[in-house]
Design goal:
88 residues, globular, single chain
Length: 88
Amino acid sequence: MNTAFLLMAQYHGKAVIPLADVCRDYFTHLSEDKLVRKVIAGEIPLPIVRLERSQKSARGVHLSDLAAYLDGQREAARKELQQLHSAG
């Protein structure tokens, strides 16, 4: 299954997904500001896009970056599961 394709369907073909939508759907435990702080601190490797240089500009995440992040999280979870089952 192609994550980017599924995200295109979920977000109706938008290239840049508004940060509020990303928080609502994938980081329900975080506010937008907290997500931005975690990205800046390097805790979440997810580039945030500003459509203009203005501080008030809308922020979002490019669909390809979100797909790569989700795929990376999936792969990390698969490795962790395999390690748990092979350790016993």
